[in-house]
Amino acid sequence: MDGNLNALTTIFTEFYYWVTIVFMFLIHVGFCMYEVGASRRRNHMHTLMKNIMIIPLVTVTFFFFGWWIYWAFPSAFPGMGGIDFEAGAAYTPWSVNMGTNLEDRITGVFWAAFLLFSWTAASIVSGSVIERIRSSALWLHAVMIGSVWWIIDAAWGWHWDGWMVKVLGYHDAYASGVIHAIAGGYALGVIMVLGPRIGKFAADGTPRDIPPHNPWMLTIGIFLIYTGFWGFYAACNVPIISPEVIDGQIVGTTWTATNIYLAPTSLSAITFNFLMSLSGGLMAAYVVSKGDAFWTFSGGLAGIITASAGNDLYHPIQAMLVGAIGVVIVYNLHYWVERKFKLDDAVGAVAVHGYAGVVGLVLAGFILWGAPSSPYEGYATVNPIGQAIGAMIMFGLLGWLPGWGLAKLQSMAGALRIPEEVELQGLDYAEHHAYEDAKADIIAADKAALAEK
Amino acid sequence: MSTIGYDSWAVDLAEVGPVYPFQGWEVAMVVVGVIFWLGWHRIQYVRESAHLEKAKTIGDKEKIAEAMERY
């Protein structure tokens, strides 16, 4: 770090990302609370363990190969140039940049910011499949969505050099597609093979509501997800950078914050838009769900997700309306798919993340039509067709297809779903019986002691 | 043509102000936003009134007593 200004900028950037990472941890806490709150008492420990173990499994694989994929795969698509081993070299797990290195103070925090997105992608899938998937099956899916598929989509569409940005003008500043559409699509692929929970559908096919066992846990969970989402938004920005460092078309000497594509935005802009899209989502969800508390809370999240693709540039009122429109579509689509295809999306993740992400990408194509997707010359500008193709790539090609494919293989091997008997008696007893047995033992001992008095 | 007024970032950022889409339509956007907000209150009020009216007559006394006991 030569020069005080450079040193200050580097340390500020390092600290900035570090703070976002701590905030984003709350997303995972929130997902855990939400899933446990939504599951029935006999499945709590299993549900929690299933989600908690996403953390280490995705972390180590993201260190081994996920981060390298991001840097090596921006052009890894037929006709676009292939894998760039040179660009990826600094991010292999044996690179000197991937450790304590006083010449590189950014890679660790930047890696971790992306890693927390990886946990989120895996956690979104985890919610859809509660109470009937084998942990071993989900953990393989977690590694694949968290350390392979989403990071390929990030290289393609969430990288200053990604082919989707260059060719399609793909614009997805806060990850409507690159996190939410792909994870929702992936979850849809898995639940199509996995099947519904016992009792979800009546004999005539009518869907039954399976209410959360603890609404308050679920409520706090989603509020924690909102809180972590603030950190996610900040983490999607480059906090401060000069035009010389960007080395694109921007002239002059004015430093700026940028989105992930190194195009200018501001923290102030995204704070406006985060809150207005949250509000639009909450208001629309309250109306469309007729005051259902959980859909209203989830609608707030869906509102943000729908607006996220363009929230670096939208006007706050546009963000609010986009959030509201997204929620109306998502809510109706969720119930239509449930009735028509008998799919059990236990926490509405396919809808809140997947459909909202797709709708958000398409709307951004119209609202930001003609806006530059990048500060570099020769890139396509934002347009509806590029955004629609991008949505199909995120939700379908990199989300639904790999999720469905791996689930199908697991199902054929008998390694996807727990046995019906275990589902009925509850996973906690079946898999974590030591805890249940110990509990029963100590209760019996206490009762015996009481009886002797 | 660009909805944000710029079709490239070949600009000096010192000379750039608003970059949101449809600049010049702020008043119209506020009107739409206010209609959305007031419309929400209207819908909510009407539905709540209907719900309260209906709820007056559906109470099961035993269940109400149980709810009171639960506090």
Write the topology of this structure.
The complex is a heterodimer of chains A (453) and B (71).
Chain A: H1 4-38, H2 44-52, H3 54-72, H4 85-88, H5 107-128, H6 135-157, H7 163-168, H8 176-194, H9 215-235, E1 238-241, H10 243-246, E2 256-258, E3 264-265, H11 267-288, H12 293-308, H13 316-341, H14 349-367, H15 384-412, H16 420-425, H17 427-431, H18 433-451
Antiparallel strand pairs in A: 1-2, 2-3
Chain B: H1 26-55, H2 61-70
Question: What does this molecule look like?
Answer:
The complex is a heterodimer of chains A (453) and B (71). By secondary structure, chain A is mainly α. Helix content of chain A is 67%, strand content 2%. Chain A has helices at 4-38, 44-52, 54-72, 85-88, 107-128, 135-157, 163-168, 176-194, 215-235, 243-246, 267-288, 293-308, 316-341, 349-367, 384-412, 420-425, 427-431, 433-451, and strands at 238-241, 256-258, 264-265. In chain A, a hairpin with a 5-residue loop joins strand 2 (256-258) and strand 3 (264-265). In chain A, helix 5 (107-128) packs parallel to helix 8 and helix 11 packs across helix 13 (316-341). Chain A starts with a helix and ends with a helix. The mean pLDDT of chain A is 95. By secondary structure, chain B is mainly α. Chain B contains two helices and no strands. Chain B is elongated, with a radius of gyration of 26 Å. The mean pLDDT of chain B is 93. The A-B interface holds A 243, 248-254, 256, 263-264, 269, 280, 283, 286-287, 290-291, 313-315, 317-318, 320-321, 324, 367-372, 374-375, 377, 381 and B 1-4, 6-16, 19-22, 26, 29-30, 32-33, 36-37, 40, 43-44, 47.
Radius of gyration of chain B: 26 Å
Mean pLDDT value of chain A: 95
Number of strands of chain B: 0
What is the C-alpha radius of gyration of chain A, as a whole number of Å?
23 Å
The biggest beta sheet of chain A is recorded as: 3 strands, antiparallel
Class by helix and strand content of chain A?
A: mainly alpha
Element-by-element helix/strand order of chain B: HH
Q: What would you call the shape of chain B?
A: elongated
Order of helices and strands of chain A: HHHHHHHHHEHEEHHHHHHHH
